[in-house]
Amino acid sequence: MKLLRLAPENTKFPFMRFRRVSYPFSAFLSLVAVALFIFKGMNFGIDFAGGTVIELRAKSGYAEVGALRALGEGLHLGDIEVQAFGNKADATLRFGLQAGGDVAQQAAVEQVRGAVGADYDLRRVEVVGPRVSNELVQSGTLGVVISIIAVLSYLWFRFEWQFAVGAVIATMHDLLLTVGFFSLTQLEFNTTSIAAILTIVGYSLNETVVVLDRIREMMRKYKKMATAQMIDLSINAVLPRTIMTATTVFLALLSLVIFGGQVIRSFSLAMIWGIFVATYSSVFICSPMLIYLGLRNEDADRAAQKAAEPEPAPPPPSPPPPGRTKATAEADASSAPAPVSAKPPSGNPPPGKPPQGKGAGGKKTAAARAKPKPA
Q: Where are the domains positioned within the chain?
């Protein structure tokens, strides 16, 4: 049976070639997210902006959450949250602060009482003020910061320090873009949104650690491969797994967006955004950061640096001495006498020595003439 594959195997995409484009692009998106947060703000829900919580109990023994939500939206009190809790007859209805102070808020409670009083009993009415909401903001922010510090410490001891810094930078990038997403879409930011952000942090770190672990494995296996090429090989090795994980999670979240209702809509949409951002950052933010932070495959980089160095040029010929031109040197070389052989040719006496028995003029000497002849 042939397995389902969403990505081909043994791909060779040059991801590191795009790092000079991905970093300016991510910096631009981060600046846009910061500007949206400062100038446009976020649509804080009742948990953060304050409001009123009304606990209802159905007289019929079954609380219809959908009908209560439609009824609350028809009152035009702003954002309405209706949730079932406890048994089937109980539900809570929440709405935000009204313009006009306490008088307007009490009038809104009476308006809800008149709309649902025939079918529901109001068991509890509670006002959530901004002071409690500020405590929730501080608790949520503290939880995110502590989780990031814990992850930094783990990666620092588990991998190299470059791996830890790269993972934290990628995680902060994902958080910043998620906040910008909430500001741009004006989705209600409540406690479920905090849960979405923490889940995105976990998903992003999971994808990042998978890539970093494969990079560390390739560094031990291919010690003579260049750093950028080794990172590309590692990302291509985990690419099928990354695409399969992102696709399955996306399909699950898409079903929550369609069938989950209004209560978890902001959570589901934020998670879908976080999947794409986390996958992008693990490939194009964290991995290239290792190169900029000085992670090197020592043997390969030393060989590449040696190959890139130009060969030394041969030394130039020494110039002739002053007053002596090239033509003069060639003329002297042609007029020089030929070397004389140390051994004379056979049969001829050496120069300056007369033949035996003859003088310098070739005549016989007196000793040669006086030698007696044999009898």
A: 15-43+133-303, 51-128
| Pair 195, 187: CB distance under 8 Å | no
124 phi, psi to nearest 5 deg: -155, 135
Half-sphere exposure of 26 (CA within 13 A, CB side): 26
Question: Distance (Å, rounded) from C-alpha 323 to C-alpha 327?
Answer: 11
User: Where would I find the beta strands (DSSP E) of 70-161?
Assistant: 80-84, 90-96, 120-128
Q: What is the pLDDT of residues 269-282, one digit of tens each?
A: 999 999 999 999 98
Residues in the chain: 375
For residue 375, is pLDDT > 50?
A: no
Residue 295 has pLDDT above 90, yes or no: no
| AA identity, residue 356 | Q
pTM of the model: 0.67
Mean pLDDT of 365-374: 49
Whether 292 has a pLDDT exceeding 80, the answer reads yes
DSSP code per residue over 62-81: ---HHHHHHHHHTTT-SSEE
Architecture of domain 15-43+133-303: Up-down Bundle (1.20)
The tokens for 109 are 């409670």
* Cross-strand partners of 57: 90, 121
Range 51-128 classified under CATH 3.30.70.3400: yes
Angle of helix 191-221 versus helix 265-281 axis, rounded to 10 = 20
Name the residue among 270, 304, 246 with its Cα closest to residue 189. 270
Q: Could you report the per-residue pLDDT of 163-182, keeping only the tens digit for each?
A: 888 888 888 899 899 999 99
Q: Dihedrals φ, ψ of 127, to 5°? A: -100, 125
User: Is residue 99 helix, strand or coil?
Assistant: coil
Look at 316 and 325; give whichever has higher pLDDT.
Answer: 316
Classify residue 358 by its DSSP letter: B
| Closest CA relative to residue 46, chosen from 72, 67, 64, 66 | 72
- The stretch 204-212 carries a mean pLDDT of 88
Burial class, 241, CB count within 10 angstroms (exposed 0-12 / middle 13-18 / buried 19+): middle
Q: Look at residue 360 and tell me whether its pLDDT is greater than 60.
A: no
Provide φ and ψ at 141, rounded to 5°. -65, -40
